Amino acid sequence: MDVREYFIKHPKAALAFSGGVDSSYLLYAGLACGADIRAYYVKSCFQPAFELEDAKKLAGFLKAELTILYKDILANETVANNPRDRCYHCKKAIFETIYAQAREDGYTLLINGTQASDDVADRAGMRALDEMGVRSPLRECGVTKEDIRRLSKEAGLFTWDKPAYACLATRIPSGTPIDTGTLQRVEYAENELFSMGFRDFRVRVLEGYARIEVREADWERLCGRKNEIKDRFEGFRGILLDTGTRP
Fold first, then answer.
1. Contact 112/16 with Cβ under 8 angstroms?
2. N or C: which end of the chain has fewer CB within 10 A?
């Protein structure tokens, strides 16, 4: 089954929309197939501001309906305590929020952008989606990340080469409680790196330090600007530099 056949069988769906590469292509594909797709974006302190702006921009480009929902995710004590399976509890809370609004809007099928290249064997968040009956058309149709980037480029979607981005909560080690102040410091630090021309990086929190992870190709440039970066970062004990494969 290909994506077009999927939307022939399922012509009406609510989409959990992040503004990232995968869900952006899925929104485009569903609309191109003539399906009734409404996008739902949940804004919490785990999502940086640029993700919401990208979601609005992409929805506007496609003339798609976009519903923005606001969630105080740290009001969930389990999520705030940041256990190893935090993603399970977070995804469940987020998708319950979407489901409630989608049903009120007349949508009974909820889909998301998980695709065939995603390793879902041991992901707590995917367990929550499976339990809730959330469907993943791209994964079910065998569409890979490489396919999505190529097809997105052909469709003129600005998201086609957007770097993969995990939520801000992933920057904090499991077992360390999450608070809005730490998330804001991380978001500010990552915005600073982006303004300096870096891509595909992470700023993780380690015992009060900002540990910067970049691609190996960016290592020399990162080291050369270490003092500038240190001056730009706020609220950390200092910075640690790390390298390796793509974060």
1. yes
2. N
